[in-house]
Amino acid sequence: MIQYLTYGVSPFQQNCRIVFCSDNSNAVIVDPGDSARELSLELDRLHLNPVAILLTHGHQDHAGGAPELSRILNIDIIGPEKGDAFLLEGMCYQGQMLGLPPVDNFAPDRWVSDNEELDLKLNEPFRVIHTPGHTPGGVCYYLEKSGLLLSGDTLFAGSVGRTDFPRGNARDLVNSITRKIFCLPDGVKVLSGHGPETTVGNEKKDNPSLSYMKRLLE
Ligand SMILES: [Zn+2]
Question: What is residue 12's predicted lDDT score, i.e. its pLDDT?
Answer without folding.
Answer: 87
